[in-house]
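The data are quoted verbatim here:
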Amino acid sequence: LPGGYPELYAEELSKNDAMRQAIRSAVENGLPTVAECGGFLYLGQTLEDPSGVSSAMAGVLPGAGVKTERLVRFGYHHLTAQRDGLLLRAGETVHVHEFHYWDSSANGDAFTSEKGALRWSCGYSGPGLHAAFPHLYFAGRPELAERFTAKAAAYGKEHGR
């Protein structure tokens, strides 16, 4: 679930109950999932549209996606895993980028992000999930794609696909 602007289509996304339930079920049943920025917002409980109206989202992660009045955590920074997960192992760092006017009431604590003297916690991570606002720079860490691909192949074999 890459970035994008789900906030612009929050009502329409919410009305597609079958898709929301299918995605929630797939993620909860271990489908390897990477959700960045807009994908992260979509996995939350609710999401505000530009006028402030909240709509139900996939409900995989805690928290509400809310509009802010300015860019939040804008720019390039470094993301360090606090524990092993789908893409990163505890202590590994990757370059990331953020650009968003929305935030979450529950950003998570699977990673520590640093930009100069600023540090903050963010994201959710597990054996089959990587979900956070920051966009990963896969070209700088090709093993992240390799880990995802290996996990997806194992999931496919396990589920007869």
About this structure: The first helix runs from residue 10 to 15. The chain has a mean pLDDT of 95. The longest strand covers residues 75-81.
